[in-house]
Amino acid sequence: MTQSIYQQSNYQRLTEIVNHLIDNNHLYQENLDREEMIAVMKDTFNPVKVVDVNNISEEELKKRIKRILSLHLVSGMLNDFTPEQMRIFDESVRTS
Fold first, then answer.
1. What residues contact 72, with CB distance under 8 A and at least 6 apart?
2. Hey, is 47 helix, strand or coil?
3. pLDDT at 78
4. CA distances (Å), 15 to each of 40, 50, 90, 93, in order?
5. Residue 96, pLDDT score
6. Are the CB atoms for 75 and 37 separated by under 8 Å?
7. How confident is the model at residue 6 (pLDDT cuts 50, 70, 90)?
8. Cβ–Cβ < 8 Å for 19, 12
9. Are the beta carbons of 66 and 21 closer than 8 angstroms?
10. What pTM was computed for the model?
11. Looking at the predicted structure, is the pLDDT value of residue 18 above 60?
12. What are φ and ψ of residue 25, in 5° steps?
């Protein structure tokens, strides 16, 4: 029962952070599906996988979620590249 309460609390906390980050970033709003990202965060920070999720500070959790959202944003953009654009991107990443 206690784990269920913690899980609910964590899900609410994750949902609030995701909503806040998406609401305050037009790139996230335009390119990410809010419900999908909430589901990703709930899965990523599932207490079974991340046992100490309750011990992560609000700021640290926001930072981690923002990184994950950014990763999904960039990976979605790469899907739209033409083969030529992807080749140029790959070359630039290798030289950095």
1. 32, 37, 40
2. coil
3. 78
4. 10, 17, 34, 33
5. 54
6. no
7. low
8. no
9. yes
10. 0.74
11. yes
12. -145, 110
